[in-house]
Write a structure and sequence with these properties.
With 728 residues, this protein is of the alpha+beta class. It has a domain of 239 residues: Beta-galactosidase, Chain A, domain 5 (Distorted Sandwich). The chain contains 17 helices and 33 strands. It has an 8-stranded antiparallel β-sheet, with helices on one face. It has a 4-stranded antiparallel β-sheet with strand order 1-2-3-4, with no helix packed on it. The chain has a 4-stranded antiparallel β-sheet with strand order 5-12-17-16, with no helix packed on it. The longest helix has 22 residues.
Length: 728
């Protein structure tokens, strides 16, 4: 079908949660802010207009509380001078000026006479804005500054393209002193309000437009403040402050986050830009929960807690900031499934896939209020717990979540391996749930070499690696807790799984592991990036690990920017697809760590260089969720994917895992030690300084530099007891 509506209907039938793209986020040149459960997407003027991708808006808890916000000067749109989000992601600043303003065909106000400055930030479910206007002429100027406002109160899944049969009702616009209230009552019986307050009060209010009549003397300046606060219950009204007071709170949060993290600085300023952007993106995406900090997955589609994404982000950053892992573990332990619920793909012991707070989730129009359709989050939870304990020695946390770890292990042994063949498989139970439940969850992401889609239950190769690593890590934890018998059993289980995995997943013809075994135990003999995760977990034999690494860096898999998700020789290859030929930074980071595990430093260097070069080309030096898998072309940057989240937490964390892989860094709490094994530095980064790297109660500053033959590690400052070991 060729009509737009027809295409939408076909997509709904095949993949209910496909993100509809009628235009590209890549061409919108949008600006993103986020705080807690709120985020905003503005155009470069600082406006929100219902054009382009349609994703612009101010959102809170998966609802768009503002879908229209346009600043006008005497009815015309001001001209853009510049627009930028500060490097720390805290503040959006926009510089504007007036166009030529005509009266009776004559220029009454020449362009460039008035200067408008807009500053915006988010805090505590509210968007704060300051608009300053300065008259640079030699005569007084009378102007009308107006702000048009509106809200569709759309659920984020509606914005993504899902059509609803019914919606709630608009409660209209209510005027009040200093502003207005836009209100909506959802089918979930929750009243949601956007409360707009202005200082000074508007001169006039017409429908949903605030008007300010200003008289500016020569060189005169006037300032307006506007706050848009989100209210989701009639009895609850979020605390709003003045612009200055709220900004102070944001700065305090930022400073607290900065003090918690170590600092990384290199001799390459472009690499520093990438690292600084990654730090800033992680700070923005990390949301404080009652259990601690949790990295929300990404803006705009995934501004919530995802199990898999949070765990992988925590693993990527564990060597430098273990507090993230602690928050992730505590949150996921608190939300672990306790009973069987087919509609949520939940089973006892299973770890959360995602959670949503919007109207459609509350009404179960989508199954994601608490959804457990992820086959890999459960073993990865155990992997993170073991890695965190090794890094921190936090016995109290491990003891508190040990029952959750045992439940996760039980899920893997019984529910995950329902047919008892030794492999963990998935098959969705919820008709509204995800058809595929690995990290590549597109409906066409698991298939055979002849192109036929695999039938469930499906055992993914990387999931077996995660289970292997989970058994190994759980054995270490059991040993530390004095459970020697359980530790021995877990190690034996891991060894059996490794032997069985090698026999049934290795495909000599493609020099790689099969993507998966289908429901009839037939291998999907397709070369994919999934096999690289088997290096990350250590389940791969040494010989096979080396062969997989070589295969992943051949032209059909390696674009020059990174490793594709799928070989260009596969029947379903499409470099513009979500999972069948694109490049994902986090995928490459995990593979890079795995390559370092097997001593393949040159291979790690190629991945590092590819993603570093991509970051240089990309706006803000920000790696998005993914980009297209076209081969690298001289003098050109990577091709953007049209609806990629940017920023995305595990993409931001990729640089730290790749850097750790280059350094061969491992940190243990018992004994307190920082070990560098076969460390190397790429040619582009000959020197690195790491300040404030903490191990238990100790802290060190290190200088790492490359000479012609090796890498030297020098201690610049040390407080407390920690040993530095460098093995060449």
């Amino acid at each position: 079908m060729t009509t737009r509506n027809g295409v939408e209907e076909v997509i709904r039938v095949k993949d209910h949660f496909y993100i509809l793209a009628t235009s590209s986020l890549a061409d919108s040149r949008t600006q993103v802010l986020k705080h807690g459960d709120s985020f905003a997407i503005f155009d470069r003027h600082g406006d929100i207009e219902p054009i382009g991708s349609g994703a612009q808006g101010f959102y809170h808890e998966e609802t768009r509380f503002l879908s229209h916000l346009v600043l006008r000067l005497n009815g015309d749109r001001p001209m853009l001078l510049s627009s930028a989000v500060k490097e720390d992601n805290m503040l959006l600043t926009v510089d504007l000026t007036n166009p030529d303003i005509l009266v009776d065909g004559n220029v009454a106000l020449p362009r460039g006479t008035l200067y408008l400055s807009r500053e915006k930030f988010l805090w505590n479910a509210a968007c704060y804005e300051r608009i300053a206007i300065t008259n640079y002429s030699l005569a007084p100027v009378t102007v009308c500054l107006s702000v048009q406002l509106g809200s569709d109160f759309a659920d984020v899944f509606e914005v993504r393209g899902i059509r609803r049969e019914r919606k709630g009702r608009s409660l209209g616009v209510h005027l009040e002193a200093g502003g207005m209230v836009l209100a909506y009552e959802g089918l979930d019986r929750v009243v949601r309000r956007s409360r707009i307050q202005c200082v000074p009060q508007p001169t006039r209010v017409d429908a949903a437009e605030l008007k300010f009549d200003l008289v500016l003397p020569p060189k005169g300046r006037d300032v307006l403040w506007m706050t848009v606060a989100c209210e989701s219950q009639s009895a609850l009204r979020p605390r709003t402050l003045s612009f200055e007071a709220a900004f102070e709170e944001v700065e305090k949060e930022l400073e607290t986050a900065r003090l918690r993290q170590c600092k990384i600085h290199t001799s390459n300023e472009q690499f520093n830009d990438w690292v600084n952007r990654a730090f800033a993106d992680l700070r923005m995406l990390i949301t404080e929960t009652p259990q601690g900090p949790y990295p929300y997955a990404g803006v705009p589609w995934f501004n919530t807690a995802f199990g898999r994404d949070g765990i992988i982000t925590a693993l990527e950053t564990l060597w430098m900031e273990p507090a993230i892992a602690r928050g992730v573990l505590r949150y996921l332990a608190s939300t672990q499934a306790t009973e069987s619920d087919p509609q949520a793909d939940a089973e006892p012991g299973k770890i959360l896939h995602e959670t949503r707070k919007g109207e459609m989730a509350a009404l179960k129009e989508v199954p994601f209020a608490r959804y457990y359709g992820s086959v890999d989050a459960t073993p990865l939870f155990v992997v993170l717990a073991g890695a965190y304990f090794e890094r921190t020695g936090d016995r109290a946390l491990v003891e508190s979540i040990w029952p959750n770890i045992e439940k996760a292990l039980h899920w893997m042994d019984h529910y995950g391996d329902a047919d008892g063949d030794g492999f963990v498989e998935y098959s969705r139970r919820s008709p509204k749930g995800l058809e595929h439940q690995g990290w590549k969850d597109s409906r066409d992401s698991v298939f055979h070499s002849h192109g036929a889609l695999a039938e469930p239950p499906i055992a993914l190769c990387e999931v077996q690696g995660y289970v292997y690593a989970a058994c190994q890590r759980a054995a270490e934890l059991a040993q530390a807790l004095g459970r020697e018998g359980q530790a021995s059993t877990l190690r034996a289980q891991a060894a059996r799984l490794r032997d069985k995995f090698e026999k049934q997943f290795w495909c000599d013809e493609i020099s790689s592991y099969a993507l998966a075994l289908d429901g009839r135990k037939r291998p999907c003999q397709v070369r994919t990036s999934n096999a690289g995760h088997c290096l990350f977990t250590g389940i791969a034999s040494v010989d096979h690990a080396h062969r997989v690494a070589r295969a992943l860096l051949e032209d059909d898999m390696f674009t020059g920017w990174g490793i594709r998700t799928l070989s260009s020789e596969a029947l379903r290859y499409n470099p513009m697809s979500y999972h069948n030929g694109s490049v994902w930074p986090h995928d490459n980071a995990l593979i890079g760590w795995g390559m370092a595990r097997y001593g393949l430093g040159e291979s790690v260097a190629r991945l590092f260089t590819g993603l570093f070069d991509a970051a240089i080309f990309l706006e803000l030096h920000r790696l998005p969720e993914l980009f297209c898998g076209f081969p690298r072309r001289p003098g050109e940057g990577p091709t953007l994917y049209p609806v990629a989240c940017s920023p995305q937490a595990w993409s931001a964390g990729a640089v730290f895992m790749l850097l750790g892989a280059c350094l061969g860094i491992s940190i243990t709490a018992s004994p307190p030690q920082i070990r560098f094994t076969h460390a190397f530095l790429p040619e582009s980064v000959p020197e690195i300084r790491i300040q404030g790297l903490r191990v238990m109660d100790a802290s060190v500053d290190l200088s790492i530099s490359r000479s012609k033959e090796n890498v030297s590690v020098n201690v610049l400052h040390r407080e407390g007891d920690v040993e530095i070991v460098s093995l060449q």
